[in-house]
Amino acid sequence: MASGGKPLIGFIGQGFIGKSYADDFERRGYQVVRYSLEPAYAMSKDRIAECDIMFVAVNAATVPSGELRDDGHPAVRFDDSNIRSVIALARPGAIVVIKSTIPPGMTASLQAQYPDRIVLHSPEFLQETTAATDAANPERNIIGMPEDAPQHREAAARVLAVLPKAPHELVTSAVNAELIKYGGNAYLNAKIVFSNIFFQFAEKMGGDWEVIRVVIGADPRVGPSHMDLHLKEDPPGVYRRRGAGRSCFIKDWAELSELYAAAFPEDTHAIQVLRGFEYKNAELLREYDRYVNLLEGVYGKGAGIK
Ligand SMILES: NC(=O)c1ccc[n+]([C@@H]2O[C@H](COP(=O)([O-])OP(=O)(O)OC[C@H]3O[C@@H](n4cnc5c(N)ncnc54)[C@H](O)[C@@H]3O)[C@@H](O)[C@H]2O)c1
Question: Does the global pTM surpass 0.90?
Fold first, then answer.
């Protein structure tokens, strides 16, 4: 326990999430310990064991598994080694809160591996461009518990008590928390890819996407986000479109598509829909020469989706 009766808060990872949250906790008067691979934070590794609550915000990659599915699609797997290994840094009895995006079932699996810590999942919704503001003003605080036991409920309440307040707060099952993050990201990814397809159709029909998207987005059931395709005239007169990129959308959709195909191998139409979005997005990103390195990291170079 830090001085002043407040819990000592640890952060593993000082990227967009870890740094933004650690800064905000410090601003609100908490003592924090920051540990990550960057030299500025690497020496704090041992001090993490002093922390009462430890947030995990490390990057975890989705990588090619080396196999091809029956439809020729390169299979992927979630590499959880980063997340699994850092939990050992928390002391027995500490609360570990996974902020990194993780596939359904992983919180329970981590809890089983570390029965003497309390492992919770709190999916993160901040955006990289507004990370500091979003971390200080979260729209949702979701705490997922691997089991509905009194010690998990108590730990979830302790975590909610130290997080910056959010208008929407929920303690639920870990699987719900994991799926809320995947579902939201996939929905936004689909919105971007669909907007690109519809932009192309509108242009062919003589329409102006910049007018159309604003009015479609004014429908509160649709909303305006993720429809601005940042169209760029390049070369002059030829508009280039952009796919859904950054670190999360590519890997999270690939993971969802993989898990869905494994869960429902006979549901070929749904698998085709998911794959269709995947292939169209890869085509858009390659056309724009954008995030191709991330695509190749997820699907592989030679076997990567075209
Ligand atoms: N960036 C976003 O907008 C965003 C939003 C929601 C969820 N997420 C998820 O959160 C996770 C982290 O995202 P980010 O953008 O903050 O990542 P980031 O790449 O910006 O930072 C990752 C941090 O983790 C540290 N790290 C990696 N392995 C480590 C290890 N073994 N020991 C100690 N430190 C280690 C790195 O040094 C770095 O400081 C990702 O899994 C991502 O899926 C990201």
Answer: yes
Q: Whose CA is nearest to atom 10 of ligand 1?
A: 100
DSSP state of 88: T
Strands 232-233 and 168-173: unpaired
Distance from the CA of 273 to the center of ligand 1, in angstroms?
Answer: 29
What is the distance between the alpha carbons of residues 128 and 247, in angstroms, rounded to a whole number?
Answer: 10
pLDDT digits (tens, 9 = 90+) for 226-266: 998 877 666 676 666 678 887 799 999 999 999 999 999 99
CA–CA separation, 166 and 153 (whole Å): 18
Strands of 16-150 (E only): list them. 32-35, 53-56, 62-68, 74-78, 95-98, 118-121, 140-145
Ligand 1 atom 13, closest CA: 59
Pocket test for ligand 1, best of 11, 12, 14, 16 (most atoms within 8 A of CB): 16
- Alpha-carbon distances, residue 157 vs 4, 153, 160 (angstroms): 19, 6, 5
Per residue in 47-95, pLDDT (tens digit) is 999 999 999 999 999 999 988 887 788 899 999 999 999 999 999 999 9
Q: How far apart are CA 69 and CA 90, in angstroms?
A: 38
Domains and CATH numbers, the chain: 3-172 (3.40.50.720), 181-299 (1.10.1040.10)
Q: Do 284 and 232 form a contact (C-beta atoms < 8 A)? A: no
Out of 11, 19, 36, 59, give the residue to mutate to test ligand 1, the one with the largest number of ligand atoms within 8 Å of its CB: 59
The ligand 1 site (C-beta within 6 Å) comprises: 12-18, 35-38, 57-60, 82, 85-86, 99-101, 124, 126-128, 247-248
Residues near 49 by beta carbon (within 8 Å), at least 6 away in sequence = 89, 90, 91
Mutation test of ligand 1: which of 12, 17, 78 has the most ligand atoms closer than 8 Å to its C-beta? Answer: 17
